[in-house]
Amino acid sequence: MKEKKGNNLETEIIHAGYHPDPVTHSVSPPIYQTSTFAFDSAEHGAALFAGKEKGFIYTRLGNPTIEALEEAVAALEKGYAALATSSGMAAISTVYMAFLEKDAHLIGTAALYGPSRTIIETEFTRYGVSSDFIDTSDLEEIKKRIKKNTKLLFIESPANPTMALTDIQACAEIAKEHGLILVVDNTFASPVLQNPLELGADVTIHSVTKFINGHSDVVGGIIISKSPELHQRLQKVLRMMGGTMDPHQAWLVLRGLRTLYLRVEKAQDNAQKLAQWLAAHPKVAWVNYPGLPSHPQYDLMKKQMKGPGSMISFGLKGGYEAGIKLINSVKLCTLAVSLGGIETLIQHPASMTHASVPKKEKEEAGITDDLIRLSVGCENVDDLIADLEQALEKC
Ligand code: LCS
């Protein structure tokens, strides 16, 4: 069978990572739903374990369906290779476990997804790991916090849920100068809108639960490395820690991935219209959306992203009480955590996704009590506006 190749992202998203099954020529990749693979002989098994022959041994160590997904996402993120994980948090904890030695120090974005920060502050402290979670859009502040034992610079851009951006290229320069590993959680942008490795990052991670799968029916993660050395270190830790993906999960994510470009374009178009509509609404106090010229990093968005995406956060003039009334009054938007699916979701981060972060740290990170987060989906935008309008009338 011929390999399918094209030069544009839309084409690559549809074809990357799949080499048609040589036996049946099946158009959809087969699901190799097996935990283990038969050896031809004792010598063959020994050669596979010794790395002298290529092939599959045991699904925690590798599986063709999982590899198809890894190959596709590595190509889209312009990486050396990728490792699929059982969840986004499995990707993050593998990165921490691989690169944080005893008594190491980490600098991270203050407004990270709650558990990405909490695991460092409540679990890795048991191994002497210390951290500074700061406003990483302030490059001077990053430089000031670097210590002799700083190993990792972990940033999320756009950040969940403040939509603050961090200059990835500038962070890569700082990381290089000080010998740090720069990891970027690219979940909010997706590989369609931002490629951190091209901007100089060492490792990119995604919760594929979100845009990459896109249908709110799978939990998963992926880690993409720039170099063979980083990939091999992460692979060793992931295989032993065991947070690997399952073949059926990988097949579903690969199916979702094939429509990523279409979904991101449509959701982003809706989000731009909704953000403008919200910003002009008399009951809305503020809107954070990188596609609005009022966003403090609008120019940075244009520099490092191909578009502002489809995540919006906003607050109402009536504050917390009005926000809670709003999320209880919507009829089309679904009141649920998670994001990046085809349906529009609305939630209250201070009491939901970021409940694990102490109140003081939340406020310092800009996760105020009045903040409402909207993950804009692919519905008709007039229907979304009508739903929010009827809910705002009650606030
Ligand atoms: N990174 C980001 C930016 C996230 O938003 C999440 C989950 C994760 C990593 C963890 O991924 P998971 O293990 O859930 O696949 N964010 C969620 C959110 O905002 N609502 O629910 C989950």
Task: Write up this protein.
It is a single chain. The chain has two domains: 249 residues, Type I PLP-dependent aspartate aminotransferase-like (Major domain) (Aspartate Aminotransferase, domain 2), CATH 3.40.640.10; 132 residues, Alpha-Beta Complex (Aspartate Aminotransferase, domain 1), CATH 3.90.1150. Helices cover 38% and strands 14% of the residues. It has 15 helices and twelve strands. Strands 1-7-6-5-4-2-3 form a seven-stranded mixed beta sheet, with helices on both faces. The chain has a five-stranded mixed beta sheet with strand order 8-9-12-11-10. Helix 5 links the parallel strand 2 and strand 3. Helix 1 runs antiparallel to helix 3 and helix 4 runs parallel beside helix 5. The radius of gyration is 21 Å and the shape is globular. Ligand LCS binds next to helix 4.
CATH superfamily of the largest domain: Type I PLP-dependent aspartate aminotransferase-like (Major domain)
Distance between the termini: 60 Å
Helix content estimate: 25-40%
CATH architecture of the largest domain: 3-Layer(aba) Sandwich
Q: Total domains, how many?
A: 2
Strand element count = 12
Q: Spell out the helices and strands N to C.
A: HHHEHEHEHEHEHEEHHHEHEHEEHEH
Bound molecules: ligand LCS
Q: Strand percentage, roughly?
A: 5-15%
> How would a crystallographer describe the biggest sheet?
7 strands, mixed
Mean pLDDT: 96
How would you sum up the global shape? globular
- How many helices? 15
Please write the CATH class name of the largest domain: Alpha Beta
